[in-house]
Design a protein that fits this description.
328 residues; mainly beta; 4-stranded antiparallel β-sheet; globular; MOCOS_middle; molybdenum ion binding
Length: 328
């Protein structure tokens, strides 16, 4: 079982047991939405429930678009990926469902015909696939998928799938030793609250939707930026660890409906969510932060029900007293 994050000097506070309502623990928030992004940097899917795996939600960032050298394409360099719609069978988010020969990942894009990628695993292996610091082999989805993305992006591309049978991509051991991911940027889950989005939109001339920040778990019912402080939470009897505040790149500045980047919300985040403003050390003062990265603390071995659902209560069991004490 993976080890817990290193202390990093944080002072974790146990939430007092007196926080009870009618004999039951008082919930701190509710799961308002769950999002899964099957192809990294392409459009997400809003689902009513998601299956937990040791690598994150099932299907999340399992596929990746790469260039001719095997290097990952993301919205940072190919914002058109924001317009690629990805669909999975509705039953793919149910417990114990396995794909059949007629199960497909369906991909759509502006001006493009529909692409159907079989969910049965391909036999071809692509070596030298890389995303950020990781390099390894992946499963190649074939020439039809390669031509689709090459035509759409206007440059040689291929679609690959993470090869869980042969490859391991670890989370940064400084924050969550022993945990693993597929093609996510760095952590299995990203949590953001409605309160935080509302606070940001209160500073913007034009409000933005949560899809700019691409979370997996979107919660409601807590104060703005409460999630900064959460180091341990429970959702449907599963324990998640808050291991690192999410530093933000240029992706939130890309309109997910048009694929066009603008100055916001990056400029506003610099004004009230920079490391300097929230009290971080000199090294992190120029970064901006929005959301909390999570890992699953529990082992799933022997667990029959492995889903979390929209509407599930969120209970905070450990927290730090201020954002300046959070891991970054």
């Amino acid at each position: 079982m993976p080890s817990t994050p290193k202390d990093l000097g944080k002072k974790n506070l146990l939430v007092k047991g007196s926080r009870y309502v009618e004999g039951k623990p008082a919930m701190d928030a509710t799961v308002a939405s769950i999002f899964i992004y099957p192809i990294k940097s392409c459009r997400g899917i809003s689902v009513s429930q998601a299956l937990l795996t040791p690598l994150g939600f099932r299907w999340d960032r399992q596929w990746l678009v790469v260039n001719s050298k095997g290097r990952a394409y993301t919205q940072r360099v190919q914002p058109k990926l924001a317009l690629v719609v990805v669909e999975l069978p509705m039953e793919a988010f149910s417990e114990d469902w396995e794909p059949s020969a007629s199960s497909y990942l369906v991909i759509k894009g502006p001006g493009m015909s529909q692409l159907k990628v079989p969910l049965s695993k391909p036999g071809q292996v692509a070596d030298g696939v890389s995303v950020w610091e990781w390099c390894g082999s992946a499963l190649d989805e074939g020439d039809e998928a390669a031509k689709w993305f090459s035509d759409y992006l206007g440059r040689p591309s291929r679609l690959v799938r993470f090869n869980t049978a042969s490859e391991t991509r670890p989370v940064d051991p400084l924050y969550a030793s022993g945990h693993r991911i597929m093609f996510s940027d760095g952590y299995p889950f990203l949590l953001i609250s409605q309160g935080s989005l509302d606070a940001l939109n209160g500073h913007l001339k034009e409000p933005i939707p949560i899809n700019r920040f691409r979370p997996n778990i979107f919660v409601d019912g807590c104060k703005p930026f409460s999630e900064d402080l959460w180091t341990e939470i429970k959702i449907n009897n599963f324990t998640f660890l808050g291991v690192k505040l999410c530093s933000r790149c240029k992706v939130p500045s890309i309109n997910q409906d048009t694929g066009i980047a603008g100055p916001e919300p990056s400029e506003t985040l610099k004004q009230f969510r920079s490391g300097k403003v929230i009290g971080l050390t000199q090294k992190q003062q120029e970064m901006t932060y929005f959301g909390q990265n999570l890992v699953l603390k529990d082992s799933l071995a022997g667990v029959k029900v492995k889903v979390i659902k929209v509407g599930d209560p969120v209970y905070v069991t450990k927290m730090v007293s201020s954002a300046s004490e959070a891991a970054v």
